[in-house]
Design a protein that fits this description.
129 residues; rod-shaped
């Protein structure tokens, strides 16, 4: 996903087509920086630290776990981005949010049906004709 666009489209996500879990590519896309130099810097830092390479590897995997994966489709609105972020952070909360939204819609449809099917509405419609 290319992050060139509105601010609501920008986000820090793991790339779905990166080399190792997409961390470097996701960061590079977010910073609008070429991915190859970022990967090289990461490898050099890992090698320079000597025995600390294990900490870098662990840190890399922790960052991969903390970063949300890149969305499959680009966002069409701020609401899409908010929903994706909430879902990636907590699927159960996102499902609860969807359930509340559709329960509200169901109540509105039921009220509309009761008005349209009521005897008063039928007489009013006939009167207006």
């Amino acid at each position: 996903m290319t992050n060139h666009g509105s601010n609501w489209q920008r986000g820090l996500y793991r790339s779905r087509n990166g080399m190792i879990l997409g961390v470097c590519k996701g960061i590079a896309e977010y910073l609008e920086f070429p991915v190859t130099p970022l990967r090289a810097i990461t490898v050099v830092l890992m090698l320079v630290t000597g025995p600390g390479i294990a900490l870098w590897v662990i840190a890399y995997f922790v960052v991969a776990l903390l970063m949300k994966p890149e969305p499959i489709l680009p966002f069409e609105s701020e609401l899409d981005r908010e929903f994706y972020d909430s879902y990636a952070g907590s699927p159960s909360m996102a499902i609860h949010r969807l359930k509340r939204t559709y329960e509200g819609l169901d109540r509105r449809i039921q009220r509309m049906e009761s008005i349209v099917t009521s005897k008063d509405w039928s007489w009013e419609k006939r009167f207006n004709e």
